[in-house]
Amino acid sequence: MAWESVISMSTGTLYPYNYDWENYNYKLKNTNPITNSSSQIHYITDAVLGSSKLLTFIKGLEEYALNGFPSDAVKPFTIFADTPYIVLLREPKNAAPTLTLNTSDNRTLYENDTFLIDGQATDADNGNIVNVKYSINGGTARAIATAISNGSAPIPYSKSLTFKGGKLYDGESLITEALGEGTAHTLKVWAEDDKGGKSAEQVRSFYVVPNRPATLTINPVEQKSGLINNDSITMTGSVNDPESQNVIVKYKIGGGEFIEIYNGPSGAFSFDLKLADLAAGANQITLQAIDSYNFITSKALTVTKAANNTALLDSNVRYSVVPPKGTAQGIIVWVQREVGDLTVSANVSMRMNGEQESFQAMTLSNTAPVADGIVEDEFTFDAGSAKEQIVIELNLHRADPTSTAAVKLISGVLN
Description:
single chain, 415 residues, mainly beta, 5-stranded mixed sheet, 33 strands, 0% helix
């Protein structure tokens, strides 16, 4: 915007002029303030009545801004100077920028949705610096774009916010605190220029549905006894995701690593907890349900492993024997054991491939000492025909639970 000359005055000449105070600023300029030591300007507000007012330029004063003065002027009114070199100038007033907003009204945002704020601003005044700003729920005004207007070309602007965890983010920068569900939230966007002009605010309402984490249920674990370390206990539970997303369920023992046990929609799950993995005493079992947005629900329970050592009086063990020639008809087994409270019996299953396993008692054909405190039992069996699959079962028995007698060596031969 620039000042332009409207009237260059001569001494004593009347200059009627129709002022446009709405669109222009006016000022009087003394172009020769040194010569005009004391210039006077008269303006007549009513030509019929002849009333007038007087403005005086003192020596050295170059300009006199009118800025709407005189407020009581009747248009048109007349102005004249009593000295030369007085010029009436005008300047177009700053035009406020305008702005359009493309963002739709009454949108609902869900977890990880993008909230796009975009549109364009214009400023008719060439050279103005234009700033586009926005605010959420009347909060901090934040800049979207800054540009220098050329007086005609639109100034585009765009800002993408992300809704996550119930809040709006600009990248990693937090824009809002938690936004309530079911409440209308307000977006305002406007443009300002460096001359004090401001566009009308564009307003949009929006709603949010924050992600709800999955719920995790662990069913009670019944107390069990009579277990050994090779046994497991089965734990069950269920997971439910309110957003109908897939959920991953994991568990860990104490400070160990998490192990995935379920991946799918809402539903029931189960997993086996090996007693061998539990320490004696209290063990904390932690379960996590992780939804598609990495929201985590955790639950912990304590499983106590208490030793209740009961000496075994009877036990059995099985051995699979592979015939070197593919088949065998007879078998002899020698079992060396310590002398004491320990007796051994033997069974054998000899069959062809595809036949059902069936155990038969082997014959104890001899017992004889082989070393100091060691005796050897000899067991024999003849299947009557060659067989491919051979499994030996030894049954051990003691009457006294404090007995320490044990098997020392097992050997045998096929025929």
